[in-house]
């Protein structure tokens, strides 16, 4: 198949919120600096649902969504040296070129090399898509487009992993789990003995809990409007639970009262701007740090009294948990193989690519953390 167009199945999003259509899609060969991957497993993340909803200003239609996956390199374009056909890989929506201003800064995991293309659904070299249906182009998404049996990505967006690792599990290391762990370890840098509040106990919030537990946090307070979330959350390290619906007072006041003035660290893992405010305001005066992890819709804005920051609270955000993708995803895979981090525990459902619309329905039900699709 090397050098040839591949026809395969992919789930195409033609319009916001309209069911995805499983189509025969043509996938062009990888050009210079590109890699074509046979995707074997892909999970659904809340961000896929967000873009599908039409609220993502970077959402373009028709497109192939999906960004949490694992597969095997099928072929590589000219000049690609770091991976070869047969390598087991995880596509990385956060690239790492190791050459740009961002990569060299030592201050961020964001990379500038291909971001201008991945934000508009095309490949960098010719600003075109490698996907088409009957000759009509279909946009890429986040530089990954994993809801397809084959995809083409930039070489700076591919992490080569241990071939022994089970792809049906480690696909989760493409987004949600690293995001939560890294928000704690890299962005907040939680110290032993800290008090932590986590708003939203989906996969990302639970991974924050796991990260906080391993960092030695003492009180790990989970906050969710669905009380059923507490049972599962205990297994990830949450040791106190608050449902905002059980209280008259604003949730930040409830947390401040519970913690003698506020928590050392808080994390917003929902994408709700009013909860982002609560998360900041439940932090302790003088040092409390709040990390925004959730993605909020186009047009939404955050607000608080500047006095909150004047008096020492810190507001931060994180993308992919601050992890350098190509360097650290293989390291996370090894941590999983050594049983130092959970992955299997986040997988509540398994389905096929053909059942993707059902899988999206599940995502909105409280019982689903991650649903892994075999392609
Ligand atoms: P999820 O839907 O599984 O989890 C959200 C949780 O929040 C649910 O348990 C829900 O009951 C709870 N919730 C909803 N409204 C609430 C409220 N007002 N107060 C308290 N709890 C509330 O989602 P997820 O897959 O865990 O993702 C969470 C967020 O993180 C999404 O916005 C997603 O787009 C974002 N995300 C960001 C990054 C990043 O790099 N920054 C990476 C992955 C995901
Ligand atoms: N396109 C959206 C922004 C989406 C967003 O913030 N994405 C996160 C990853 S979410 C993964 O589930 C991210 O890494 N952002 C950094 C980046 O460079 O995109 C919008 O609202 O515009
Ligand atoms: Zn995601």
Automatic annotation (TrEMBL):
<dbReference type="Pfam" id="PF00107">
    <property type="entry name" value="ADH_zinc_N"/>
</dbReference>
<keyword id="KW-0963">Cytoplasm</keyword>
<dbReference type="GO" id="GO:0046294">
    <property type="term" value="P:formaldehyde catabolic process"/>
</dbReference>
<dbReference type="InterPro" id="IPR036291">
    <property type="entry name" value="NAD(P)-bd_dom_sf"/>
</dbReference>
<dbReference type="InterPro" id="IPR013154">
    <property type="entry name" value="ADH-like_N"/>
</dbReference>
<dbReference type="InterPro" id="IPR002328">
    <property type="entry name" value="ADH_Zn_CS"/>
</dbReference>
<keyword id="KW-0862">Zinc</keyword>
<dbReference type="GO" id="GO:0008270">
    <property type="term" value="F:zinc ion binding"/>
</dbReference>
<dbReference type="InterPro" id="IPR011032">
    <property type="entry name" value="GroES-like_sf"/>
</dbReference>
<keyword id="KW-0520">NAD</keyword>
<protein>
    <recommendedName>
        <fullName>S-(hydroxymethyl)glutathione dehydrogenase</fullName>
        <ecNumber>1.1.1.284</ecNumber>
    </recommendedName>
</protein>
<keyword id="KW-0560">Oxidoreductase</keyword>
<dbReference type="GO" id="GO:0004022">
    <property type="term" value="F:alcohol dehydrogenase (NAD+) activity"/>
</dbReference>
<comment type="subunit">
    <text>Homodimer.</text>
</comment>
<dbReference type="InterPro" id="IPR014183">
    <property type="entry name" value="ADH_3"/>
</dbReference>
<feature type="domain" description="Alcohol dehydrogenase-like N-terminal">
    <location>
        <begin position="32"/>
        <end position="161"/>
    </location>
</feature>
<comment type="similarity">
    <text>Belongs to the zinc-containing alcohol dehydrogenase family. Class-III subfamily.</text>
</comment>
<dbReference type="Pfam" id="PF08240">
    <property type="entry name" value="ADH_N"/>
</dbReference>
<feature type="domain" description="Alcohol dehydrogenase-like C-terminal">
    <location>
        <begin position="204"/>
        <end position="327"/>
    </location>
</feature>
<dbReference type="GO" id="GO:0051903">
    <property type="term" value="F:S-(hydroxymethyl)glutathione dehydrogenase [NAD(P)+] activity"/>
</dbReference>
<dbReference type="InterPro" id="IPR013149">
    <property type="entry name" value="ADH-like_C"/>
</dbReference>
<dbReference type="GO" id="GO:0005829">
    <property type="term" value="C:cytosol"/>
</dbReference>
<keyword id="KW-0479">Metal-binding</keyword>
